[in-house]
Specification:
Layout (H helix, E strand, L loop, with lengths): L2 H14 L6 H6 L5 H7 L3 H20 L7 H13 L7 H12 L6 H27 L8 H22 L3 H16 L10
Helix pairs in contact: 1-6, 4-7, 5-7, 5-9, 6-8, 7-8
């Protein structure tokens, strides 16, 4: 998917949301005609799946685990970046459209597979950081998979709360740091507040 088509799809999703989005809306945001879009993508779903693949690449590049010797600091920084999308004026509209796409997952296996990739990435990164923290004695002897599953749930829940209630990511970040301090850190270790 070209950068122009990514930008056009993003803009159209922000303006129209998922339910009302048409191929013509996306074409109107680009220099391409509707026919040109249909040449490459048979349906709106096909185009949105390609768009989600491009978003996944951006998401994983932005969230790769930071280089820090302290697993606690690295975990906090990772979750902080996961909870804080890039600043854009239309970010709330876009996140609302993404939530509407996520709502299609029970009815659409292809969307489910794409969305699962995002969750799997967050899970795998968190599991790796927690495992390293346990090996270094920074974290208690916890189950890294369970912690990672909890953090994916935290991430998804924070997204829903932000879109539906306007809850700031700061609230979730503060609660997460407290969770790390009270549930993960081994005795004698501390994590600096962000």
């Amino acid at each position: 998917m070209t950068d122009e088509l990514i930008r056009a799809t993003y803009a159209a999703l922000c303006k129209h949301g998922y339910a009302d989005l048409t191929m013509q809306d996306i074409a109107d945001e680009s220099s391409k005609s509707k026919a040109a879009l249909h040449y490459h993508y048979d349906t709106k779903q096909d185009l949105l799946l390609a768009f989600l693949a491009a978003l996944y690449e951006d998401f994983t590049d932005r969230l790769r685990a930071p280089d820090d010797d302290d697993p606690a600091a690295r975990l906090v920084a990772f979750i902080d970046r996961a909870l804080t999308p890039p600043e854009r004026d239309d970010q709330r509209a876009f996140q609302t459209a993404i939530l509407a796409i996520k709502a299609q997952v029970p009815y659409d296996d292809a969307f489910g597979e794409r969305i699962a990739e995002f969750d799997a990435f967050v899970h795998d990164q968190c599991r790796a950081i927690v495992t390293e923290g346990i090996e270094q004695g920074v974290f208690r002897d916890v189950d890294p998979d369970r912690v990672a599953t909890f953090l994916v749930t935290l991430f998804n829940g924070a997204h829903v709360r932000w879109v539906t209630e306007g809850q700031s990511a700061d609230v979730t970040q503060e609660l997460f740091v407290e969770y790390v301090r009270s549930q993960l850190l081994a005795n004698g270790w501390e994590v600096a507040a962000e």
